[in-house]
Amino acid sequence: MPGVFQLSLKQVADEARRAQDLGLQAVLLFGIPEHKDEQASGAYSENGIIQKALQAIKPKCPNLVTITDVCLCEYMSHGHCGVTRIDGEHFHVLNDESVELLVKTALSHAAAGADMVAPSDMMDGRIGAIREALDTSGFDQVGIISYAAKFASTFYGPFREAAESPPQFGDRRSYQMDFANANEALREVALDVDEGADILMVKPALPYLDILWRVHERFGKPTAVYHVSGEYAMVKCAAEKGILDERTAVLEIMTALKRAGADIIVTYWARELAKWLRE
User: Fold this and answer.
1) CA 91: distance to chain centroid?
2) Which of 150, 221, 236, 258 is catalytic?
3) Is 52 designated active site?
4) What is the per-residue pLDDT across 132-154, written as a single tens digit (0 to 9) for each?
5) Residue tagged active-site, from 104, 203, 221, 236
6) The whole model's pTM is what?
């Protein structure tokens, strides 16, 4: 992923300040722990990487909205988004056990200063469980951005390598959406709305413009879209080979996402876009 880097704790606050100075309103934080295990303990540790990053960023960037990825894949030794059980040649992701750990993670992020938490795991019932836990723990002003329609996509590949979280066995199709099934995605979104999601996320972006439009129109809630690593890498590679102009292509893509109903766009080009749109 050209131009995208892992950042140390010493670097992250300065990078966040540069984003704020460019006029960006929010950052979405993903953590890579020093150690991984089968209970994702680094995700909800009081001294975890995200918790420390929040404590470093907030004093320097008081006006920047801090959003944290709430998932377990980067903290699990096996790379899946939840607790697993293996039966012979088959494996299962245990939904309820995973939700318990996701709730602990969201609470620890809120306690460390997160403005919003973004559950990206696609476990059933996690939005309602996180909302209830936040409210009863005094974090009723912490918002939830739900990855409400996250598809099992090949376009996540570069991010998984960068975040050191590819699954060590199997795949994630048992809990992420079938890319051929739009109706299932809309049912999942409806459940998250009922459970208290503040913002709805569709991921990836360009192959799912129809889903983005339908979510925006049907539910009438703030709608986000995540232009993912594989989509980013394709344009970067094509630009490096002289096949297309990067800036022109990116502006066209982002305009398409806005046209399809995106109120919020998560993109690796955020800093460049902030500069280009001022020129």
Assistant:
1) 24
2) 150
3) no
4) 999 999 999 999 999 999 999 98
5) 203
6) 0.92
